[in-house]
TrEMBL record:
It comes from Methylobacterium planeticum. It comes from the Bacteria. GO terms for cellular component: membrane. The chain crosses the membrane at residues 34-59, 65-87, 108-132, 152-177, 189-209, 229-254, 266-290, 310-335, 364-383, 389-409, 421-440, 446-464. This is Amino acid permease. It is a multi-pass membrane protein. The lineage of its organism: Bacteria, Pseudomonadati, Pseudomonadota, Alphaproteobacteria, Hyphomicrobiales. Signal peptide: none annotated. It is found in: Membrane. InterPro entries: AA/rel_permease1. GO terms for molecular function: amino acid transmembrane transporter activity.
Length: 477
């Protein structure tokens, strides 16, 4: 039986058997390594969070205490990352949180979280693309070239359409459609270049710091929750939590890894350590170079370099930002296609999303459709709305991952766990509470948008997924 009829849960044994079933169609290629997973994680996380949203979070919420916001986000991620590592090593298939939810809470909840993950991946890719556009335009301006405002900004941000943002999404989609191994190699090379440039920024910026800009570390609250003060630190953490979405992307890639039981924990936890160090260092240097209220721009690191006055180095940093944002968008688009692949195999989406190209061994058609739709979002939606939507969607997914660990410890206690979280009730419980606290720090209109989005998902489920994804249905090829 494919699922438990009482509540729509799908046993882990069945999930693994379906993933290995050759009769279900050509499988995704298994050619990634632990190093590939670390690079995917770093590529996903070190992007818009460090090159774009650092400025927004510092200028509007946390001020110099942005460092504390990143540390708070990292603590929450440490709890969640351990839970991801246990689940990814135990259930090494595409789908990540969607699949874990199907195994613990059933089909209906799996649909809800799968729909929520569209916010995390597709909206993340769109957010990063808008940031990429900002840095590209800054670099072109250094060369004396400027795009017409109406063609370089979304409605609500002073323009009609953001063509550079849409263009980078379509270009990366073309790469992902071809071969995941080529995409992984390109990502690894770009990640290495990106990290080198970030370290150069930290080193050069540290030599030009103005420590007076860090005082006070926590600016006084303006009288509104989340506008500086300690509530601002909390809200800033909720916003920059976007920077830690790499866990989900690594988990989606585990099904294409050669030795997932060993490589998944390395990829997940290795990426967390590296990115946290980079984030804290950049946040400290950034707020020590530019007054925090002046950082509310699409390219804050470029502004910091301009403040130093090193023209040639500014070009290098802006190129590094473009590289960083490129890898972040690449991995987000990759992850979205794998979530849809898993949902379509369970008949919760049309079978178009589960088709694997016999030559490239990628979900090529699904990847192309996702790329086109994401490009449209990047072209027409401002970055501030996108960033907060991604954060709340990510936090909801993380809560379910922590809950899944607790549930499976009770329902399948004897199942082999290649990586086992110690003190699981404490770790998973703290992960849930921390994520709830960060969600509470997000603005009310973000919650409203989440509710509207989930309402749309419920309507689609009622009209399609509830009937086509009935218990006992065989997975689609």
């Amino acid at each position: 039986m494919a699922v438990t009829r009482r509540n729509g849960r799908k046993p882990i044994a069945r999930i693994l058997a379906e993933h290995a079933d050759a009769a279900a169609g050509p499988p995704l290629a298994r050619n990634l390594t632990a190093f590939s997973l670390v690079c995917i994680g770093v590529g996903a996380t070190v992007g818009a969070g460090i090159f774009v949203l650092t400025g927004t979070a510092a200028a509007q919420y946390a001020g110099p205490a942005l460092v504390l916001s990143f540390l708070l986000g990292a603590v929450a991620c440490a709890f969640v990352g351990l839970c991801y590592a246990e689940l990814a090593a135990m259930i090494p298939v595409p789908g990540s949180t969607y699949t874990y939810t199907y195994a613990t809470l059933g089909r209906f909840c799996a649909w809800i979280i799968g729909w929520d993950l569209v916010l995390e991946f597709a909206m993340a890719a769109a957010t990063v693309a808008v940031g990429w556009s900002g840095y590209a335009q800054s670099l072109l301006a250094d060369l004396g070239l400027r795009l017409p405002t109406r063609l370089a900004s979304a409605p609500g941000a002073g323009g009609l359409v953001n063509l550079p943002a849409a263009g980078i999404v379509l270009a990366l989609t073309a790469l992902l459609v071809r071969d995941n191994r080529d995409a992984a190699r390109a990502n690894a090379a770009l990640v290495a270049l990106k990290v080198a440039i970030i370290l150069a920024f930290v080193a050069v910026g540290a030599a030009h710091l103005n420590p007076a800009l860090w005082s006070p570390l926590v600016p006084p609250n303006t009288g509104t929750f989340g506008a500086f003060g300690w509530s601002g630190v909390l809200r800033g953490a909720g916003v920059v939590f976007f920077a830690f979405i790499g866990f989900e992307t690594v988990a989606t890639a585990v099904g294409e890894t050669r030795a997932p039981q060993r490589d998944a924990p390395i990829g997940l936890l290795g990426a967390l350590v590296l990115t946290t160090i980079l984030y804290v260092a950049v946040a400290a240097v950034l707020t020590g170079l530019v007054p925090y209220r002046e950082l509310d721009v699409a390219d804050p690191i470029a502004k910091a370099i301009d403040a130093i006055g090193l023209g040639a180095f500014a070009v290098v940093i802006k190129l590094g930002a473009l590289v960083g944002l490129t890898t972040s968008a690449l991995t987000a688009l990759y992850g979205q296609a794998r979530i849809f692949y898993a949902m379509a195999r369970d008949r919760l989406l049309p079978d178009t999303f589960a088709r694997v190209h016999p030559v490239t061994r990628t979900p090529a058609l699904s990847q192309g459709l996702i790329g086109v739709l994401t490009a449209l979002v990047a072209a027409f939606v401002p970055i501030d709305i996108l960033g907060e939507l991604v954060s709340i969607g990510t936090l909801l997914a993380f809560i379910l991952v922590c809950a899944a660990v607790l549930i499976l410890r009770r329902t399948e206690p004897d199942r082999p766990r290649p990586f086992r979280v110690r003190a699981a009730p404490l770790v998973a419980g703290l992960g849930i509470l921390t994520c709830l606290a960060l969600m509470a720090g997000l603005p009310g209109d973000t919650w409203i948008r989440l509710a509207v989005w989930l309402g749309i998902g419920l309507a689609i489920y009622a009209g399609y997924g509830r009937h086509s994804g009935e218990p006992g249905a065989a997975p689609r090829a």
